[in-house]
Recover the amino acids of this structure.
């Protein structure tokens, strides 16, 4: 069983009821804190963006490119979430951006409480964009509002075009879907038409941006999206 959010396959009715109750309490408390974070972001004019995906889809690479290419146009800060290591924070630090790493230990997602604490420590500048890179996982982070304004789900062409159907909560709760690693399309059996259709089966109006952090193709569309928010 997932230690933090209680996700599990439940076989008995009683166990099922208990899981639902625990889940309700945990999520209720999280939602209250998320509203506090949202108020903080609003007051300071901070655009908070929660980046969610399975591990390895390219979240940190997308941030490295964005922070470098848009330097001078916007002020950025980053909160990194991983179970262990400061690897991603080190990569972000190398771009010259203010960054805080949260290690969740056995936890499979960031929650609003962790973000609240990180904000107290880092005090991101006003009128900025705050990226929050969530723990790589297409399940639990969907349930935890962090107080963000935008939730961006990143899938990559090496993961298979069926992922939106398998993990619909993540795609449904997002406000943008990025399909990354399009440079690999000639080499993998990924049907991009089917992927688009699967995304829209889950959420008909979810915008999709196709890009490659490696070749840079499509990044301008992502930058335009960011500036429009
Ligand atoms: N071919 C290719 N590889 C990429 C691209 N974006 C990221 N990667 C690679 O994918 C791997 C995982 O990237 P990373 O940013 O650490 O993923 P994260 O776990 O989602 O943060 C790394 O080896 C990256 O170099 C891309 O657009 N094309
Ligand atoms: Mg990462």
């Amino acid at each position: 069983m997932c230690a933090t959010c209680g996700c599990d396959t439940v076989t008995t009715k009683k166990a099922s009821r208990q899981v639902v109750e625990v889940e309700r309490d945990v999520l209720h408390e999280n939602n209250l804190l998320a509203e506090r974070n949202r108020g903080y972001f609003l007051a300071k004019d901070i655009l908070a963006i929660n980046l969610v995906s399975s591990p390895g889809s390219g979240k940190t690479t997308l941030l490295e490119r964005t922070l470098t290419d848009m330097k001078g146009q916007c002020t950025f800060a980053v909160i990194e979430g991983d179970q262990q290591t400061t690897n991603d924070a080190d990569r972000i630090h190398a771009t010259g951006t203010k960054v805080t790493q949260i290690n969740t230990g056995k936890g499979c997602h960031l929650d609003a409480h962790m973000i609240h604490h990180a904000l107290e420590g880092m005090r991101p500048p006003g009128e900025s964009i705050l990226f929050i890179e969530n723990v790589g996982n297409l399940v639990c982070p969907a349930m935890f509002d962090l107080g963000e304004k935008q939730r961006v789900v990143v899938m990559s062409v090496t993961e298979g075009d069926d992922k939106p159907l398998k993990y619909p909560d993540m795609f449904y709760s997002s406000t943008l879907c990025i399909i990354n690693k399009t440079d690999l399309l000639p080499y993998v059996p990924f049907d991009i038409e089917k992927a688009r259709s699967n995304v829209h089966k889950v959420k008909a109006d979810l915008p999709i941006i196709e890009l490659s952090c490696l070749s840079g193709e499509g990044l301008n569309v992502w930058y335009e999206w960011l500036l429009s928010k």
Remarks:
- Helices lie at 13-44, 59-69, 87-93, 112-122, 163-166, 168-172, 192-202, 219-227.
- The chain has one domain: 13-227.
- The chain is about 40% helix and 15% strand.
